[in-house]
Amino acid sequence: MDKIAKDVGDIQSRLLDHRPVVNAEIRYFVKEFEEKRGHREGRLLDNVNKMVLETKEQMLPVDLDTINQQLSSVLKRLEAANHMAQRVQQRELEAQQSTQVQTNMEQLKEEWGEFLKEQQRLKEEVDEEHAKAVGRLSAEYGEKKKDLEKFSSI
After folding, report:
1. What is the tens place of the pLDDT at every residue in 76-109?
2. Among candidate residues 44, 46, 62, 65, the one with its CA nearest the CA of residue 54
3. What's the per-residue H, E or C state across the chain?
4. How far apart are CA 86 and CA 78, in angstroms?
5. What does each C-alpha distance from 7 to 15, 18, 20, 21, 83 come to in angstroms?
6. What is the pTM of this model?
7. pLDDT digits (tens, 9 = 90+) for 20-74
């Protein structure tokens, strides 16, 4: 029975456990890949090294004074452009503020016009009430004058 269990275990491990075979295939693939890639990268590094050496030989020594002059010229132009941009921004800000002032003035004019209309309406109401009061008082004094004339003529 032990032998049957071993045989069954051995058959099962051979049928279902593929790790040793997979590990061997992986090692073979990595070895082939590293050999082929290693040579290719070595050639690439040699080519890059040659290009760097050729470029270094071909480039002329650069005069630092020339570079400084060119940079100072570029810096002056950049400062001038920056100054011009600041002036443009200032003008835009002033224009925006002046349009805002104009808008505020127009709004104040409209509010003033509405205020004057309201004052005119209130003045007319007061004048109307005054006219009614004057009429009532005139009528009342007219009656009192008549009554006074009646009493004085008696």
Report:
1. 999 999 999 999 999 998 888 888 888 989 999 9
2. 46
3. CHHHHHHHHHHHHHHHCCHHHHHHHHHHHHHHHHHHHHHHHHHHHHHHHHHHHHHHHHCCCCCHHHHHHHHHHHHHHHHHHHHHHHHHHHHHHHHHHHHHHHHHHHHHHHHHHHHHHHHHHHHHHHHHHHHHHHHHHHHHHHHHHHHHHHHHHC
4. 12
5. 12, 17, 19, 20, 92
6. 0.35
7. 778 888 888 878 777 776 677 767 878 888 888 887 777 655 666 777 888 889 9
Query: How many CB atoms within 10 Å of residue 124?
Result: 10
Question: Which pair of tokens denotes residue 14?
Answer: 């051979």
pLDDT number for residue 134: 92
Q: Which residue has the tokens 């693939």?
A: 29
Tell me, what's the pLDDT at 137? Answer: 92
Q: How many angstroms separate the CA atoms of 146 and 109, rounded?
A: 54
CA 55 from centre of chain: 45
